[in-house]
Amino acid sequence: MDEKIKKFLYVNRKAPYGTIYALEALEVVLIGAAFDQDVSLAFLDDGVFQLVKNQKTDGIGVKNFSPTFRALGDYDVTKLFVEQESLDERGLTADDLQDIIYEDEDDDWAEKPSIRIVSRAEMADVMADQDVVLSF
Amino acid sequence: MKFGVVVSEGPYTHQASDSAYNFVKAALENGHEVPRVFFYHDGVNVGTRLSIPPQDERNIQKNWTALAAEHDLDLVICIAAAQRRGLLDENEASRQGKDANNISEGFRISGLGQLIEMGIQTDRLMTFGD
Amino acid sequence: MSYDVNGTSVEHDEEGYITNLADWTEDLANVIAKAEEVDMNEEHWEVVNFLRSYYEEYQIAPAVRVLIKAVKKTMGPEKGNNKYMYELFPYGPAKQACKIAGLPKPTGCV
Amino acid sequence: MSTLHTVNKSPFATGSLQSCLSHAKDGDAILMFEDGVYGATKGTTLADAVAAKGGSVTLYVLQGDADARGIAAARLIEGVTPVDYVGFVRLAADHDRTHAWL
Asked: Which of B52, B67, C43, D40 has an alpha carbon 20 to 30 Å from C2's alpha carbon atom?
């Protein structure tokens, strides 16, 4: 396989459950993690709803995949950029999101947050700094 | 230049597969390479050989199959998305104990790794979806 | 197709994965293991239980390298390696251990 | 280093165009195609915002999609350039990455 490491950004702009995009995006991220690329996830617009805590899907008979985001650290996916303005517009704050942490192997397995709240301008910078942008 | 192409919506309901087809055709005709087209989400339905569109409409599946034959395209249907939606090739059908398969000529079923690999190995990644 | 667990039948697919995840019991695990020619001992159970709790917490079966990394961390490097895993489950932890643990079939995406 | 953004949704159906406008950087290009072409038309509630962005990014519309929807050249916002699929391919090649605002 090719040796060069590329920057991959997975852009999540859709809410979970109403459509399958969020779930199938997560499946790509999990598989993609095996390819040792430089992976980031962007959550903006309705995509921020994917990370909201206390999702309970028993009443709709659909699998609750929100806990899987907490496994991303095990897959070395540790950069989840969440846009502040998108949260604001939807009446959410960072406290409404579930805690997603990773253990930093290079720092004696210290637990660090994977979610990084960024402004819209910073999100634009993140997007402009990629080799490959995958949209869902 | 090498273009990787993702089609993430089904045929007829969305224009995505038509746009992707027109893009791929134009790219190939202008000296570019399209090493792979990856069908994901409902896009996997583009690969069924059992659709019967009215004669006065374009035949999306046949157009892709013809383009694949002409340019030796690698049309890959995502296995995880395909299994959910009932798209099977002969191998998958027998592995899963199903009594039929429905994949068009020119398409193959493979893993999501093919999407990542396409992103790594091409110069530009185009996504056609909804 | 089904496994026989003390007289009760539990449905499984072509490859031996149970159809309904809620059907899983420890007795069933032993029956699946027997069909896989895996002789369940404490070390096998350690991995199977680990997989089940991982699935319970995250709703996915971990990729093999993730499993090995996690086992290494919780059970030590003498267990958290490929050799140890494949000794326990000759056809691979993803296929055999997940099957015995009653987790969904890996979609084989890579 | 610049990006080709593609927008295929009507701005009256989803926020994709607006989100794209607020994330595109100077020197980027935006191609409106499929239902996205409605975002390139004059006289809409969004036309001013689109036209204003035209100062720092280059705006394109896919001719075939505009034609299909009965949008004559005269109805396009000033500064929006129509391209065909060959032009689309060229735009994708000329920018360092593409970003589809689905």
From this structure: C43
Question: Cβ contacts (< 8 Å) between D25 and chain A: which residues?
Answer: 124, 128
* Architecture of domain A7-135 in this structure: 3-Layer(aba) Sandwich (3.40)
Higher-confidence residue of A64 and A3: namely A64
| 3-class SS shares of chain B: helix, strand, coil, % to 5 | 40, 20, 35
Return the domain boundaries, chain A: 7-135
Which amino acid makes up residue D102? L
B78 catalytic residue (yes or no) = yes
The fold of the D3-101 domain, in CATH, is Hypothetical Protein Ychn; Chain: A, (3.40.1260)
Q: Is the ipTM of this complex over 0.90?
A: yes
Alpha-carbon distance A104 to A106, whole Å? 5
| CA dihedral sign, ordered D58, D64, D68, D74 | positive
Contact A31 B121 (CB under 8 A): no
Q: What is the CATH number of the domain that holds C7?
A: 1.10.10.370
CATH number of the B2-128 domain? 3.40.1260.10
Contact state of D23 with A130 under an 8 Å Cβ cutoff: no
Residues of C in contact with A75 (CB under 8 A): 63, 66
* Lowest-pLDDT choice from A6-15, B26-35, C79-88, D57-66: C79-88
Q: What's the angle, vertex CA A53, arms to CA C56 and CA A47, rounded to 5?
A: 110
Tens-place pLDDT, residues C8-61: 999 999 889 999 999 999 999 999 999 999 999 999 999 999 999 999 999 999
Q: Is D touching C (3+ C-beta pairs, cut-off 8 A)?
A: no
Tell me whether residue C87 is in a domain: yes
Of D9, D35, D89, Cβ closest to residue B23: D89
Task: Report, as an integer, the average pLDDT of B66-74.
Answer: 97
Looking at chain C, list the stretches that DSSP marks H as alpha helix, in order from N- to C-terminal side: 26-35, 42-58, 64-75, 82-88, 98-100
What residues of chain C, 65 to 94, have a C-beta less than 8 Å from chain B?
Answer: none
The two three-digit tokens of residue C25, written as one number: 């019991």
The number of distinct structural domains making up chain C is 1
Residues of D in contact with B32 (CB under 8 A): 89, 93
Which pLDDT value is given to residue B51?
95
User: What is the domain range of residue C70?
Assistant: 2-100
pLDDT at residue A3 in the model:
65
Query: Residues A3-33: pLDDT tens digits?
Result: 689 999 999 999 999 999 999 999 999 999 9
Q: What is the pLDDT of residue A10?
A: 98
Residue A53 C-alpha, separation from nearest chain D C-alpha, in angstroms: 24
